[in-house]
Amino acid sequence: MLRKSFIPLIALTFLIGCTMFPGGPEEKEPERKKELSMGVRRKTVPEETPDKAKSLKELEDADEENTEVQHAAVHADITVSSTHTEHSGEQAASALVDGDLTTRWSSRYEAPQHIVIELDHAKNIQAINLHWETAAAKKYALLISDNGENWEQVTETTSDKLGPRVDRLSFNRLETRYLKFELEERLNADWGFSLYEIEVISDE
Ligand SMILES: [Ca+2]
């Protein structure tokens, strides 16, 4: 009789214990969530790192390839016929010669337009790379001058290819201080003319 009466008592004691001290399983819950959270972080970091490393390496390789030349127009004086800055990414004309291929200038959404670059002195130019944004020119001319007043046309370029594109103008010998780009026709009349950079390649 005594043994049988102990059974409900033991069961009752167990139930009271669970009610008063329920912490066992719940104390472990925060640790499990922390592990999951850390697991997510560990998973995303390796996915991002190779892309960044690759792009940095590409930039370094590009720099190494360009060690024999220099961008002779970085921070040169520059004047433009107009500037449009109302849309994202559009910056002042100085973005054309800041040595940064991610910054760009845009003209107002009209044609024609022009850009004049004044080097600090006359230089022998081997090539000019025009880094067009999507709003590239369909037709434009390059003129040179020694005094910024009397101009001589050197090239005229036409292209039906929307940007981004790079037009490379190469020269046997082109010595000048002033460069003028007459932007005559647009590929898309809804936009203006937009360039990331006018890269002037000179050995001086
Ligand atoms: Ca730029």
In short:
The chain is α+β, with helices and mostly antiparallel strands and 204 residues long. It has helices at 2-20, 23-65, and strands at residues 70-71, 77-80, 90-91, 104-106, 113-132, 137-145, 152-158, 165-186, 194-202.
H/E series: HHEEEEEEEEE
Kindly report the oligomeric state of this protein.
single chain
Number of domains: 2
In CATH terms, the superfamily of the largest domain is: Galactose-binding domain-like
CATH topology of the largest domain: Jelly Rolls
Hetero compounds: calcium ion
Q: Percent of residues in helical segments?
A: 25-40%
What is the architecture of the largest domain at the second tier of CATH? Sandwich
Calculate the terminal CA-CA distance, rounded to whole Å. 111 Å
Largest sheet: 9 strands, mixed
* Overall mean pLDDT: 79
Number of distinct helices: 2
Draw up the topology in text.
Blueprint: H1 2-20, H2 23-65, E1 70-71, E2 77-80, E3 90-91, E4 104-106, E5 113-132, E6 137-145, E7 152-158, E8 165-186, E9 194-202
Parallel strand pairs: 3-4
Antiparallel strand pairs: 1-9, 2-5, 4-9, 5-8, 5-9, 6-7, 6-8
